[in-house]
Specification:
Layout: H1 2-6, E1 22-28, H2 36-47, E2 51-59, H3 76-95, H4 99-102, H5 106-111, H6 119-123
Length: 128
């Protein structure tokens, strides 16, 4: 996972490829359940300016959760994964049209020589 993140460009043609994207984090492990990995992934998602959904999942003893064909067995772990996937889709749909506004930053507008006025000023709201 770290190698994949290391190869992501921080900026490409002035844009950050990850910012404003939705992120869901899940973990599978061979041993006991731990949320250390998913918590670290959340931190990485924030660092990459992604919209991280509140839900997450961790599957312990993953070797016992699949049948011979590789399909996950019905269980509370399976239900949780479906919950996370549904929430990822929901947050993606809800934020898709608003991602630019959610990740807009004064320092980046300043670096691009764009107006540094606030969104409220741009909208011409009273009192601005």
């Amino acid at each position: 996972m770290k190698a994949q993140i290391d190869h992501l460009p921080l900026a490409y043609k002035g844009l950050r490829p990850t910012q404003g994207r939705t992120l869901a984090v899940m973990q599978v492990s061979a041993g006991s359940q731990s949320f250390n990995s998913v918590n670290t992934l959340r931190i990485l998602g924030r660092w990459m300016r992604m919209i991280t959904i509140p839900n997450q999942s961790s599957v312990a003893k993953a070797y016992a959760e699949f049948d011979e064909a590789g399909r996950m067995l019905p269980s509370s772990y399976y239900d949780r994964i479906v919950d996370v996937a549904e929430e990822l889709v929901r947050f993606t749909v809800l934020t898709r049209g608003h991602a630019d506004q959610l990740v807009d930053r004064y320092s980046e507008r300043k670096d691009r020589n764009e107006p540094v006025i606030t969104p409220a000023e741009m909208a011409g709201l009273p009192g601005t």
